[in-house]
Design brief:
The complex is a heterodimer of chains A (113) and B (111). By secondary structure, chain A is an all-beta fold. Chain A is built from no helices and 11 strands. Chain B has 111 residues and is mainly β. The chains are: A mainly beta (113), B mainly beta (111).
Chain lengths: 113, 111
């Protein structure tokens, strides 16, 4: 069966420090991969999506970047974190178009202090 | 503009009472429709989805939702709420290779 792993679960980082969040999917090949951010009390904002290795689309300009070095690996990064980067980050995948179904990881709570 | 609206930010119901969470969308065509549930500090779990056919959709955990085209709505219902249903609920719509989420409704269950 397909599973999605996301880590770490929680992270506290100082302003200006780098960031690397990792997401991997098991049990499927060539998934579409997504990074969402959920600010406190708000809905989900799509940050990046990828339909294949090395293919990254950015939805909003920001301090973050994403990479897909392997088929089932999706990494969210930042060179220098801002206070506004705090939030709950969710990785998700779909086997087809995202409008059909998304399956989510357990999330990473990032606090930038 | 395309949008997904969940009018209720927070709802409180007593355990055993019925529940209805509202969702309205604004799209040019009928999108795919979803309800997700999120427990604190967790990812989102799919409760149910509507693609076509019968407008009353059954999901997991005793939830159901009804698609009403004339009202552009996809409200989530449960006849008898359990304390474990306390969570955040998100309506989502999928159209044209895109998935958009509502802002969520937080459900509190009173004993």
């Amino acid at each position: 069966s397909q599973t999605i792993h996301q880590w770490p679960a929680t992270l506290v980082q100082p302003v200006g420090s780098p960031l690397s969040l990792e997401c991997t999917v098991e049990g499927t090949s060539n998934p579409n991969l997504y990074w969402y951010r959920q600010a406190a009390g708000r809905g989900l904002q799509l940050l990046f999506y990828s339909v294949g290795i090395g293919q990254i689309s950015s939805e909003v300009p920001q301090n973050l970047s994403a990479s897909r070095p392997q088929d089932r690996q999706f990494i969210l990064s930042s060179k220098k974190l801002l206070l506004s980067d705090s939030g709950f980050y969710l990785c998700a995948w779909s086997s087809g178009p995202p409008n059909e179904k998304l399956l989510f990881g357990s999330g990473t709570q990032l606090s930038v202090l | 503009a395309q949008s997904v609206t969940q009018p209720d930010i927070h709802i409180t119901v007593s355990e055993g009472a019925s529940l209805e969470l509202r969702c309205n969308y604004s799209y040019g065509a009928t999108p795919y429709l979803f309800w997700y549930v999120q427990s604190p500090g967790q990812g989102l779990q799919l409760l149910l989805k509507y693609f076509s056919g019968d407008t009353l959709v059954q999901g997991i955990k005793g939830f159901e939702a009804e698609f009403k085209r004339s009202q552009s709505s996809f409200n989530l219902r449960k006849p008898s709420v359990h304390w474990s249903d306390a969570a955040e609920y998100f309506c989502a719509v999928g159209l044209n290779n895109d998935m958009r989420f509502g802002a969520g409704t937080r459900l509190t269950v009173k004993p």
